[in-house]
Amino acid sequence: MYISDNAVPIIVGKNIQRCRILRGWSQTQLANEAEMDRADISRYENGSREMKITALYRVADALQVDMDQLFFTPDECCEKNALPSKAQRLNKSGQTVLKKVMEIFLQTPELTEDDKNF
């Protein structure tokens, strides 16, 4: 699978945003939890700034997700194995609803068709 270099920050940013919103947090709350600047969180979420590994670790830790989850493509995020462990405890109907919400939320017009279909 090939993902263009430009797509990686966008994918990571959308996943940070998705996880933050699922927790009910503002960018300021995430920034406080990760001990970072709110402006940096905004730049990461919109894909305009690439993250250093230390920032990625701090954000993942604050969101209580594995770092690799932040690299999932929209299709991978909607696979059962990509669901957070708490979501896997949902019944089948609940998982289906969550997957649909994630699919809708993760539609990213900034990605090229090649990036979406890899």
Brief overview:
With 118 residues, the chain is an all-alpha fold. The chain has helices at 7-23, 27-34, 38-45, 53-63, 74-77, 85-88, 92-105, 113-116.
Lay out the secondary structure.
Layout: H1 7-23, H2 27-34, H3 38-45, H4 53-63, H5 74-77, H6 85-88, H7 92-105, H8 113-116
Features:
single chain; 118 residues; mainly alpha; disordered C terminus
List low-pLDDT spans.
78-82, 114-118
SSE string, helices as H and strands as E: HHHHHHHH
Structural class assignment: mainly alpha
Question: pLDDT average, as an integer?
Answer: 77
The geometry reads as globular
What gyration radius follows from the Cα positions, in whole Å? 14 Å
Tally of individual helices: 8
> Tell me about the biggest sheet?
none
Helix content: 55-70%
Beta-strand share of residues: under 5%
Annotation, overall tally of beta strands: 0
Distance between the termini: 6 Å
What does this structure look like?
With 118 residues, this protein is an all-alpha fold. It contains eight helices and no strands. Helix 2 (27-34) packs across helix 3 (38-45) and helix 2 packs across helix 4. The longest helix is centred in the N-terminal third of the chain and has 17 residues, at 7-23. The protein starts with 6 loop residues before the first helix and ends with a helix.
